[in-house]
Design goal:
The protein is built from 14 helices and 15 strands. By secondary structure, the protein is an alpha/beta fold. It folds into two domains: about 250 residues, Aspartate Aminotransferase, domain 2, CATH 3.40.640.10; about 120 residues, Aspartate Aminotransferase, domain 1, CATH 3.90.1150. Strands 2-8-7-6-5-3-4 form a seven-stranded mixed beta sheet, with helices on both faces. A four-stranded antiparallel beta sheet has the order 9-10-15-12, covered by helices on one side. It has a two-stranded parallel ribbon with strand order 1-11. Helix 1 packs antiparallel against helix 9, helix 10 runs parallel beside helix 14 and helix 11 crosses helix 14. The chain is globular and about 65 Å long. The N terminus is likely disordered. It binds pyridoxal-5'-phosphate. Pyridoxal-5'-phosphate binds next to helix 3.
Length: about 400
């Protein structure tokens, strides 16, 4: 029987989150009575301008920076695109080499593929079996032509946290010795509410956020861009966002982003403690109750809310369907393509064999998940995995 909406157990927070009531409240006036364009000169429009300015200050405070270094965007994808294209294009006279990793989100990987078409050379560094980038690989890959390094702070599929501060420090040291400019960008989309995203402690020049991942609205995001970082605007038009991102500001989205990001920062310590305890309970429970369950990602350097298992001899499409019927929302590590499954590029990069990778289940927790919900998942999952192994069509994976 399909689940009741109210009893649905949501464990897919890496996909998206609900807008926080306080963020929603902050957004509402800018849809109606304070709808005006922040660029207009009359008095009511000043309210909209003030809202954008206040939000920029709030976001800058959370990231430990100054308001002019904050660019409001339409989300994580745009922030990644703008960072990579904007910085690389501006630094092109110096060099055409970009370094990234094979486990980045497609917003970064596909943008790097695009840069190759423009004549850039991109090094896609491998990750280890736990999904982590090696600092020494970064060091070895840097050359005189290197202008940009883009390495995600935490992986959205397997939850692995990369040593971004170390990477940034190495990049800066190398740039100094080569007498060049190497900008460091990090995709921190999965991190607010879970990790420290202070840009000085990370040492990054650019950082991407997506509001709907931290209880803000969809279609809104942030690009942090350190002062004096060369940048060529990719979205051209008016002079908005200090000529770095043209287009009338999404005032409600911006207002909601700021409130949600501040709340995520304020509640981080409690949130981490709670989700980590639930995560570890769920991981231990699965390992105890289900044979052939392989934990993906790093055992300790992982997002406090991420659980990612590959179950051998299963096809995660069927597992997800059965979980949905049981009223549990999760996600898979595979992209469904026609009759066969293509394992996720992240799992492939971690060296997980294709047949195992297509049996991958990702559960991502949020602050509202409870021990009872975790125990309910642990009650139903062993039976579901057994049923999928016994009855589902044979696993077929593209190598
Ligand atoms: C790590 C990472 N980067 C970028 C994005 C893209 O964000 P959006 O879909 O909000 O544009 C996502 C979304 O899942 C993500 O997880």
């Amino acid at each position: 029987m399909p689940h009741e909406e109210t009893s649905f157990i949501y464990m897919d927070h890496a996909a998206t989150t609900a807008v926080h009531p306080k963020a929603l409240e902050a957004m509402l006036p800018y849809f109606s009575e304070q709808f005006h364009n922040p660029s207009s000169s009359y008095l009511p429009a000043q309210k909209a301008r003030q809202a954008v300015d206040a939000a920029r200050k709030t976001v800058a405070d959370v990231l430990g920076t100054r308001p002019p270094e904050i660019i409001f965007t339409s989300g994580g994808t745009e922030s990644d695109n703008a960072a990579i294209k904007g910085i690389a294009m501006a630094l092109r006279p110096q060099g055409n080499h970009i370094i990234t990793s094979a486990a980045e989100h497609h917003a970064v990987l596909h943008t790097c593929h695009f840069m190759e078409k423009l004549g850039f050379e991109v090094t896609y560094l491998p990750v280890d079996s736990r999904g982590m980038v090696s600092v020494s690989d970064i060091e070895k890959a840097i050359k005189r032509e290197t202008v940009l390094i883009s390495i995600m702070l935490a992986n959205n599929e397997v939850g692995t946290i990369n040593p971004v501060a170390e990477i940034a420090a190495i990049a800066k040291a190398k740039a100094k010795s080569l007498k060049t400019h190497i900008a460091v960008h990090t995709d921190a989309v999965q991190c607010p509410g879970y990790l420290d995203i202070n840009v000085d402690r990370l040492g990054v020049d650019a950082l991407s956020l997506s509001s709907h991942k931290f209880n803000g609205p969809k279609g809104a995001g942030v690009l942090y861009l350190r002062r004096a970082t060369p940048f060529e605007a990719q979205q051209t038009g008016g002079s908005h966002e200090r000529n770095r991102r043209a287009g009338t500001e999404n005032v409600p989205g911006i207002a909601g982003t700021a409130v949600a990001l501040k709340l995520a920062a304020e509640e981080r310590a409690a949130n981490v403690e709670q989700t980590k305890a639930l995560r570890d309970r769920l991981i231990a429970g699965v390992q105890q109750r289900i044979q052939g369950a392989h934990l993906n990602g790093h055992p300790t350097e992982r997002l406090p809310n991420n659980i990612n298992f590959s179950f051998d001899r299963t096809d995660s499409q069927w597992t997800l369907m059965a979980l949905d019927e049981a009223g549990i929302g999760a996600s898979t590590g595979s992209a469904c393509r026609t009759a066969s499954l293509e394992p996720s590029h992240v799992l492939v990069a971690c060296g997980i064999p294709a047949n195992l990778a297509i049996g991958t289940l990702r559960l991502t927790l949020g602050p509202e998940n409870t021990v009872q919900e975790v125990d309910r998942v642990l009650d139903v999952l062993p039976g579901i995995i057994q049923r999928v192994r016994d009855t589902a069509p044979p696993v077929e994976a593209k190598p």
